[in-house]
Design brief:
This protein is an alpha+beta fold and about 270 residues long. Helices cover about 45% and strands about 20% of the residues. The chain contains eight helices and eleven strands. Strands 1-2-3-5-4 form a five-stranded antiparallel β-sheet, sandwiched between helices. Strands 6-7 form a two-stranded antiparallel ribbon. Strands 8-11 form a two-stranded antiparallel ribbon. Strand 2 and strand 3 form a beta hairpin. Helix 1 crosses helix 2, helix 1 crosses helix 3 and helix 2 packs across helix 3. The structure holds adenosine-5'-diphosphate and magnesium ion (MG). The site of magnesium ion has 3 residues, from loops.
């Protein structure tokens, strides 16, 4: 398979280049120290690529280390703040779950099931979903670039302090916040053509009293057979959270129709 050999050669070349440069540029190696201990060589090469491209200037530290990914606070060469999400390439248990969120999505064609390929596709999917959301005007981080298992987006927060999760900071006006979240769900479905699929107080930031939707890697196209189930789950979670804050939430069925524009009839066969 000549293609494979070619890409291996490119990999080797990049690797050599990375080593050479890292040796000679202290500034670069500082940045790599931040991720070196956790991530493999291919990831470091990916970071190096983003550095050379001028996407990332430096990484300053971890915002949050989860089970599937780490989010770093970084800055672009022009000083603007970045969130750099790096997926682990060795998270085995999470793989099974990922496949069902990729299968049947026309954006990705035939699925390559090796752990590394899956994670790369997952990263690409989150980037693509963020693009769809951002273009539709959904309040979310703006996607900037991705390579391999690394996703670069705008940082939501201030001076390196990430905005609190809704989970960590209850809204001052829960009713208004609820209405706002519902509006974002409708815009996501009808404008971006997506359903979040993991929407909860853990994946909404409360940024100066305004909801910002993020963590969209599992979000599905509304035409996908999973979409009806996912929108119900999202509605359930959101209603549950706001009910606990004393909000009089809207009827589930009525909400589903409102969010999807009554399109649920389309899916009764699937
Ligand atoms: N663009 C961003 N700006 C600021 N903080 C972010 C951003 N994206 C993620 N975070 C922070 O990193 C954490 C993990 O990100 P998330 O995308 O939810 O990953 P996970 O898949 O681990 O849930 C979030 O809870 C949030 O605090
Ligand atoms: Mg999350």
């Amino acid at each position: 398979m000549p293609r494979r050999r070619d890409s291996e050669k490119t990999g080797d070349r990049l690797e050599r280049k990375y080593e050479e440069d890292a040796l000679f540029k202290e500034k670069d190696s500082d940045m790599f120290q931040v991720i070196e201990a956790v991530f493999d060589r291919l990831t470091l090469q990916g970071m190096y690529r983003l550095l050379k491209k001028g996407v990332v200037g430096s990484l300053h530290g971890v915002v949050k280390a989860g089970k599937e990914a780490r989010v770093y606070y970084g800055t672009a060469p022009d000083g603007s703040e970045l969130a750099v999400k790096i997926y682990y390439t060795h998270t085995a248990e999470f793989r099974k779950g990922m496949i069902q969120y990729i299968e049947g999505d026309p954006r990705f064609g035939r699925i390559r099931r090796s752990p590394r390929s899956l994670i790369y596709t997952w990263t690409q999917k989150e980037f693509s979903n963020l693009q769809l959301c951002h273009r539709a005007g959904v309040r979310c981080p703006r996607p900037i670039d991705f390579t391999r298992n690394i996703l670069v987006m705008t940082f939501i927060g201030e001076a390196g302090e990430p905005a609190p999760l809704l989970r960590e900071l209850e809204p001052e006006d829960p009713q208004a916040f609820y209405d706002d979240v519902l509006g974002q769900m409708q815009l996501m479905w009808q404008g971006a053509g997506l359903v979040h699929g993991d929407l909860s107080e853990y994946n909404i930031l409360n940024f100066r009293g305004v909801p910002i939707i993020f963590d969209v890697s599992q979000a599905m196209l509304t035409a996908h057979r999973l979409a009806p189930t996912l929108i119900e789950r999202d509605i359930e979670n959101i209603n549950g959270y706001f009910r606990r804050l004393g909000v009089e939430t809207r009827d589930r069925e009525e909400l589903r129709e409102w969010i999807t524009g009554g399109a649920e009839d389309l899916y009764t066969d699937t």
